[in-house]
Amino acid sequence: MSEWRAPARLPRHVAIIMDGNGRWAKKRGVPRALGHRRGVEALRDIIRESSDLGIAVLSLYAFSTENWSRSSEEVGALMGLVLEFFRREIDELDRNGVCIRILGDVAGLPAPQRDAVRSAMARTARNEGLRLNIALNYGGRAELVRAARTLAVAVRRGELAPEDIDEERLAAALDTAGQPDVDLMIRTSGEMRVSNFLLYQSAYAEFLFPSVLWPDFDREAYHQALDAYAARERRFGGRQDKGE
C-alpha cells in the first residue's frame, strides 16, 4: 500500500459521532463494555492523527444526555472509561499541546468524572495545539437552551439589548465559543443521524456516514474520510456556476 498523502485542503474542525461500539461487541459475542473499551483505543489513534495533521479542532461525541437511560451497568462502564481515559492520557495530551474542552453539562456528571474533566481542562487551558472537544452529558438542544439563558440574563442586567442579539453573540454563548464551525461531520457505523450533536455548529458541515464500526475506525478509514472531504465542493448555501 502506498503511503498516504494528506490532501491540500483539510477541514479545520472535524466532529465525530463515535457509533457502533455495542454492535462491534455483539458481532464478536463479547460484553458491550469491551466494545466501549476498544472504542477508546480507536479514539487515541484519531486524536494523535488529528494533532499530527494540524487539524485545528476535533470534537468527539462521547456521552449524550440521552445515554443516562441505558442500563446502570453500561453507564457505569462508560463513566469508568471516562476516568481511565483522563488518568492514562492526560500526560501525553498535555505534552503534545492539546487543549481540552468539555462540551455539555459538566455539573451534571458524577463527582469523580466532574473533577477529572475540570482538572484536565485547567491543566491544558494554555496549550496551543489541537483543540480537543469531548462532549459529555451533552445535547445540542440543551446547549442552545443554555446559550439562550445566558443571553437572556445579559438582557435582564442591561448588558445587552434584544435587538443586538445576532449570530455572533449566539455563537459566543455556545460551548464551542471562539472555535470555527464544523467543516466535516463523521458518523461511523452507517447510521445517518446527527443525534442532537452540534446542531448549530454543523449548519454547513459536510457529512460522511462510513459503514465501519467505531472500534474499527483506524487511521486508514480517517484518511479516506479526509480525502472524501477534500473532493467535496463547498457552497455554504450559494451556487457556483461552471460555465453553463
From TrEMBL:
<dbReference type="InterPro" id="IPR001441">
    <property type="entry name" value="UPP_synth-like"/>
</dbReference>
<dbReference type="GO" id="GO:0016094">
    <property type="term" value="P:polyprenol biosynthetic process"/>
</dbReference>
<keyword id="KW-0460">Magnesium</keyword>
<feature type="binding site">
    <location>
        <position position="70"/>
    </location>
    <ligand>
        <name>substrate</name>
    </ligand>
</feature>
<feature type="binding site">
    <location>
        <position position="36"/>
    </location>
    <ligand>
        <name>substrate</name>
    </ligand>
</feature>
<comment type="subunit">
    <text>Homodimer.</text>
</comment>
<feature type="binding site">
    <location>
        <position position="68"/>
    </location>
    <ligand>
        <name>substrate</name>
    </ligand>
</feature>
<dbReference type="InterPro" id="IPR036424">
    <property type="entry name" value="UPP_synth-like_sf"/>
</dbReference>
<feature type="binding site">
    <location>
        <begin position="20"/>
        <end position="23"/>
    </location>
    <ligand>
        <name>substrate</name>
    </ligand>
</feature>
<keyword id="KW-0808">Transferase</keyword>
<comment type="similarity">
    <text>Belongs to the UPP synthase family.</text>
</comment>
<dbReference type="GO" id="GO:0045547">
    <property type="term" value="F:ditrans,polycis-polyprenyl diphosphate synthase [(2E,6E)-farnesyl diphosphate specific] activity"/>
</dbReference>
<feature type="binding site">
    <location>
        <position position="32"/>
    </location>
    <ligand>
        <name>substrate</name>
    </ligand>
</feature>
<comment type="function">
    <text>Catalyzes the condensation of isopentenyl diphosphate (IPP) with allylic pyrophosphates generating different type of terpenoids.</text>
</comment>
<feature type="binding site">
    <location>
        <position position="19"/>
    </location>
    <ligand>
        <name>Mg(2+)</name>
    </ligand>
</feature>
<feature type="active site">
    <location>
        <position position="19"/>
    </location>
</feature>
<dbReference type="GO" id="GO:0000287">
    <property type="term" value="F:magnesium ion binding"/>
</dbReference>
<feature type="binding site">
    <location>
        <position position="187"/>
    </location>
    <ligand>
        <name>substrate</name>
    </ligand>
</feature>
<dbReference type="Pfam" id="PF01255">
    <property type="entry name" value="Prenyltransf"/>
</dbReference>
<keyword id="KW-0479">Metal-binding</keyword>
<protein>
    <recommendedName>
        <fullName>Isoprenyl transferase</fullName>
        <ecNumber>2.5.1.-</ecNumber>
    </recommendedName>
</protein>
<feature type="binding site">
    <location>
        <position position="24"/>
    </location>
    <ligand>
        <name>substrate</name>
    </ligand>
</feature>
<feature type="active site" description="Proton acceptor">
    <location>
        <position position="67"/>
    </location>
</feature>
<feature type="binding site">
    <location>
        <begin position="64"/>
        <end position="66"/>
    </location>
    <ligand>
        <name>substrate</name>
    </ligand>
</feature>
<feature type="binding site">
    <location>
        <begin position="193"/>
        <end position="195"/>
    </location>
    <ligand>
        <name>substrate</name>
    </ligand>
</feature>
<dbReference type="InterPro" id="IPR018520">
    <property type="entry name" value="UPP_synth-like_CS"/>
</dbReference>
<feature type="binding site">
    <location>
        <position position="206"/>
    </location>
    <ligand>
        <name>Mg(2+)</name>
    </ligand>
</feature>
